[in-house]
Every structure is written in structure tokens, then in C-alpha cells.
């Protein structure tokens, strides 16, 4: 029987070895690229750091946009003209301008669906709530 070899079977290992040798030889060139240019904003001003972090916590803000901070005492965040919230050892609160708002803490909770809308509160002394154009109710504890 005649021994048959294909072109790929004969040259495949040589082709692979050549590609590997080229990759090894050019690898140092990959790391020799110059550093990227410094950062500039569209208006030509240099970019600035948008946040900081350290042992006391972290903070960050996008100019004219969202901002937030976190540390041992809690965390807070806000979007200008939009939702805002905070949380810490004393409780948490959050609000959407013109919309729902609420808070919770060791003394109880309260919230409303929107200014002038349905609202309610609950705490150690009882619960209360109001529905506009319907009425309010309070249920004391005990």
C-alpha cells in the first residue's frame, strides 16, 4: 500500500511552528508600545478624578450627574433633580422629587406615594395613615 500524505499533513506542523516562532519573536514589541496619551475632555480641559477612596470611605461624582459616598457612618447617593437616598446606623430614607418618599429607623417607618397622596407611618406607639378625599386613621398600641 502506498503511503499518502497531504500537503496540510506535511506542512501543517511547519506552519504551526513558524507561527509560534513569530509570536514569540514579536512578543516584546507588544509590550514596547508607548503609553496612552493623557486624558482630555471634549472641550480640551484635562480629565479629573471623579472619585476618591480611602480608609474613611469612598466618594464619587460625575459633574452635573449622580454622586454618592459611603463610609463607616453610612452611605448616600443622589441624582440631580432625581432620586436620592441615604442609609446609616440610624435608619434609611429615600425620595423621588414629586413622587414617593419614605424613611425607616429605630423609631418606626413612614412613607407617602407622592406629595398630597396616600401616606402612612408606623412606630412603637401605633400606626396611622391617610388617603386624600377619604380620611385618616390612627390605631394606637395597647
Automatic annotation (TrEMBL):
Domain of life of the organism encoding this protein: Bacteria
Signal sequence extent: 1-32
Keyword field contains Signal: yes
UniProt keyword list: Signal
Composition skew (Gly residues), residue ranges: 53-110
Residue span of region Disordered: 51-124
Protein name as catalogued: Collagen triple helix repeat protein
